[in-house]
Design goal:
Blueprint lengths: L1 H71 L48 H27 L1
Helix pairs in contact: 1-2
Length: 148
């Protein structure tokens, strides 16, 4: 009888030890998940900040475009800038040129890309910051997926 109790005790101890290992693994996983949540919350906060900045810049750009034609000429003229090819009365100015989207990734300086105007430069900088934030978010998401 004593041998049977001793064997049962050993099996219970082994089972308990296995359960402790499982609990430790789950605690490690839980801690990793908490860290991932903290990282993702930081990314979300950063993206929201960038989004707010972009919205403010867009509002400023819209306001400056809206105020520009009204001060120059007829109030009935729409505030949307037209390309120079559609207007015969005035020569093409830097503000009227189309924005070169392809060149935005590397250079936003007017020296390197003459199609970027002074008005659009802050918006472009914000767009680049948002793109960087998205790349950071993707990198964190990839690390999360790799560690899962």
């Amino acid at each position: 009888m004593s041998d049977l109790l001793h064997a049962s005790k050993k099996r219970l101890q082994a089972a308990f030890h296995r359960l402790e290992k499982v609990v430790e693994l789950h605690e490690d996983e839980r801690q990793k998940m908490r860290q991932k949540v903290v990282e993702l919350e930081a990314v979300v906060h950063h993206l929201k900040t960038e989004q707010n900045m972009l919205m403010r810049l867009q509002e400023q750009l819209t306001a400056s475009r809206r105020d520009g034609p009204a001060a120059e000429g007829d109030a009935s003229e729409p505030s949307v800038k037209r390309p120079a090819a559609t207007t015969s009365k005035r020569a093409a100015t830097k503000k009227d040129r189309p924005l070169n989207i392809e060149g935005l990734q590397e250079n936003t300086s007017n020296d390197h890309n003459p199609l970027i105007t002074e008005e659009s430069a802050p918006v472009i900088s914000g767009m680049e910051a948002a793109a960087m934030s998205i790349r950071e978010f993707k990198a964190i998401a990839q690390r999360v997926n790799e560690s899962s």
